[in-house]
């Protein structure tokens, strides 16, 4: 029983990682463009989305349960800055049960090929019925498409656990400023920027030499500003530094001629946990992020890790884990009842696997009606078995 409950707990943790940070009871439309949430695409309501990009749409978790139950849904995992389309301009034929009035168009929503059921540079569905190669998929943090590891055209990181995020090769070329950081951020506690040259991007630094010793007093989430080392400066220089305006200094490491060969090679890149806080936040770089629509890189709530942690905390704040509740319940039962319960559980599990195997073979979607039908049949068999059982005293 402990093994069963432990397995169930692991499944719940996986589910909570995706769904725990989303609202399952209320449509998120009124919240605007949510930082990150679980999304679904309904091909029953909008079948044209398979072939027409302009028909792509996404619905939130609550609408997938209340408005699109028993529909053919594409599970999109999580997406950033998205507002629910259920019953909106892109889904005019749908009546949202949770929030009917959705007159404003979701003009800031971004739709990639995932909303049509396709993934990776191979543009194939997942799971792919024609692909028998076992290969995990990993999501690019910028375009948010999913890629087969073998289609990234790069060597897989030696220690997968040390890498938290991936940027695909296409996004690396579209956002060249990221190339400056490749190979220069070691981990979340240490950054290797030995060759960084601080450049005044404001034009205000006329009195201070760029070769003077400098210290960085700003935190990782604040704009980097250079301060003169008071021990190296004279009284006049110190006084001048105090009265001088704060300078917005660019700390983005330069991309030298040798860096392309040594650090960045064309293709996808893998990034350690916490790497985003080392991105330069000077005015020039922030303008660069805005130009490339990448300001979300500076938002700590944008990461999937943050979203998953919120889901886990919500689960922990509930009435304990299913493992703890299950063990508590098991301890209250006598030995005979425990044996009967586990026997029936194993029987139900084997029968359910047999029932679901036919859907795998025929590549059919399992609906709620299919599961309801299965348990109704199982209960009928249990009643018949009990009615045909011999009297207790004859056993």
Explain the overall architecture.
This protein is of the alpha+beta class. Among the domains are: 92 residues, no CATH class; 114 residues, 2-Layer Sandwich (Herpes Virus-1), CATH 3.30.40; 52 residues. Helices cover 31% and strands 13% of the residues. The protein has a 3-stranded antiparallel beta sheet with strand order 2-1-3. A hairpin with a 6-residue loop joins strand 4 and strand 5. About 15% of the residues have low confidence.
Question: TL;DR?
Answer:
One of its GO terms (molecular function) is zinc ion binding. Helix content is 31%, strand content 13%. With 395 residues, the protein is α+β, with helices and mostly antiparallel strands.
What descriptors fit this protein?
three-stranded antiparallel beta sheet; 31% helix; Herpes Virus-1; 395 residues; two-stranded antiparallel sheet; alpha+beta
Overall shape: it is globular
Structure classification? alpha+beta
Give the neighbour order of strands across the main sheet: 2-1-3
Write the CATH architecture name of the domain at 117-185 and 256-300.
2-Layer Sandwich
For the report, how would you describe the main beta sheet?
Answer: 3 strands, antiparallel
Percent range for helical residues? 25-40%
Radius of gyration over C-alpha positions, nearest whole angstrom? 28 Å
Number of helical stretches of at least 4 residues? 10
Number of strands: 13
């Amino acid at each position: 029983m402990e093994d069963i409950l432990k397995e169930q707990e692991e499944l719940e943790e996986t589910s909570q990682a995706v769904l725990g940070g989303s609202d399952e009871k209320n449509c998120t439309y009124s919240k605007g463009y949510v930082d990150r949430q679980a999304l679904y695409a309904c091909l029953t309501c909008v079948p044209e989305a398979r072939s027409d990009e302009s028909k792509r749409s996404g619905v939130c978790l609550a609408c997938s349960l209340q408005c699109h139950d028993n529909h053919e849904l594409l599970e999109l995992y999580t997406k950033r800055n998205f507002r629910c389309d259920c019953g909106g301009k892109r889904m005019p034929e749908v009546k949202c049960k949770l929030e009917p009035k959705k007159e404003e168009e979701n003009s800031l929503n971004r739709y990639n090929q995932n909303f049509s059921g396709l993934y990776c540079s191979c543009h194939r569905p997942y799971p792919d019925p024609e692909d028998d190669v076992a290969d995990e998929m990993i999501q690019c943090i910028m375009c948010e498409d999913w890629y087969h590891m073998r289609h990234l055209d790069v060597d897989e990181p030696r220690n997968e656990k040390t890498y938290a995020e991936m940027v695909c090769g296409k996004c690396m070329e579209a956002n060249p400023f990221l190339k400056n950081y490749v190979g220069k951020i070691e981990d979340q506690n240490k950054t290797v920027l030995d060759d960084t040259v601080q450049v005044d991007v404001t034009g205000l630094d006329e009195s201070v030499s760029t070769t003077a010793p400098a210290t960085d007093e700003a935190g990782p989430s604040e704009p980097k500003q250079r301060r003169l080392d008071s021990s190296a400066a004279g009284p006049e220089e110190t006084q001048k530094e105090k009265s001088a305006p704060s300078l917005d200094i660019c700390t983005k490491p330069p991309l030298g001629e040798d860096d392309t060969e040594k650090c960045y090679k064309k293709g996808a890149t893998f990034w350690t946990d916490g790497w985003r806080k080392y991105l330069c936040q000077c005015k020039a770089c922030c303008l660069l992020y805005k130009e490339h629509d990448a300001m979300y890189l500076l938002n700590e709530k944008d990461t999937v890790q943050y979203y998953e942690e919120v889901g886990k905390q919500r689960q922990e704040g509930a009435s304990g884990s299913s493992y703890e509740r299950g063990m508590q319940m098991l301890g209250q039962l006598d030995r005979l009842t425990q044996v009967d319960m586990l026997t029936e559980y194993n029987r139900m599990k084997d029968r359910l696997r047999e029932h679901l195997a036919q859907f795998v073979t025929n590549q059919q979607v399992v609906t709620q009606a299919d599961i309801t039908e299965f348990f109704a049949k199982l209960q009928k068999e249990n009643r018949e078995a009990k009615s045909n059982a011999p009297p207790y005293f004859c056993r």
